[in-house]
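step 3/5: co-fold with NAP
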Amino acid sequence: MNIIDGKAFSERIREKVKSHVDNLKKNYDIVPGLAVVLVGEDPASKVYVKNKGIQTKKAGMNSYEYKLEETVDEKTLLELVKKLNDDPNIHGILCQLPLPKHLNEDMIINTIKPSKDVDGFHISNVGLLNTGQKSLVPCTPLGCLMLLREFVGNLEGKKATVIGRSNIVGKPMFNLLLSENCTVTVVHSKTKNIEEICKTSDIIVAAVGRPNFVKSSWIKQGAVIIDVGINRVNIEENGETKSKLIGDVDFENCSKFANAITPVPGGVGPMTIACLLANTLVACCRSNNLKEPEELIL
Ligand code: NAP
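step 4/5: write tokens
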């Protein structure tokens, strides 16, 4: 059994991004810029935004952070997005989700210029991906696909099951696997026979948000398992309660049957930020009519 080291692979992607960024600076005096908008004080979102800023700068890009009050009105947020759309120094824009309930998330995402939508959530990018056209692809499923291509190779003809049908992971993952000529099944909370479906799958991508949801009895011998889940749980250790991150897959037991499996942490998580940087670089190249870094796009 192989543990898929997403951390090491993501470092290689970030190095490639940095080398392209250095060339852009040297040859064209262009520095890719990523703007991240954070609304409110959600602790997990604050950590993600901080990490994104650090990694963006490490890759040699400009990082712009916009922090807005939890109570900000929709008009102010939309005006900020439009200002960023018009700023030629900014090539990628993302609004950290989830947004507070009083804001219309769809409307805000769909106000981002599709060519700067590095999260790939704008309806135009969703439609392009769905119809197999060039787009900006959501970072987490893109990272999962890169791992699968690297560690499995040719995916054609493989039977894949995606657990979860969210717009940010499950649905784009379905489209990406389909475009690799996999036979894909998507299962969700209303699916009756998940275990049976998983048991015949060569590839399982779990994006459920439930700790240890995928059991070892569901795994076909030799399957490849990609665990997207990030769940914070409390565990008892030496009489102390500790907080720990675990995935959607029962790693310890499923790994006995799998050919390869991603750990949590250190699997899909680091790939998401690496793909965000890659998307920002791609968006920058496209907006300047420059050749895209082939190895970083699909
Ligand atoms: P989400 O929007 O909550 O979607 C969860 C999906 O799982 C839904 O489609 C839901 O089905 C399905 N589901 C829930 N309970 C189920 C059950 N008992 N049986 C079968 N399906 C069930 O979550 P998400 O945004 O896709 O994220 C999923 C997980 O990935 C979370 O742990 C999240 O933290 C993690 N994540 C990680 C990264 C990363 O960078 N590594 C990025 C994004 C998300 P219904 O549609 O029927 O409700």
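step 5/5: annotate
The first strand starts at residue 2 and ends at 3.
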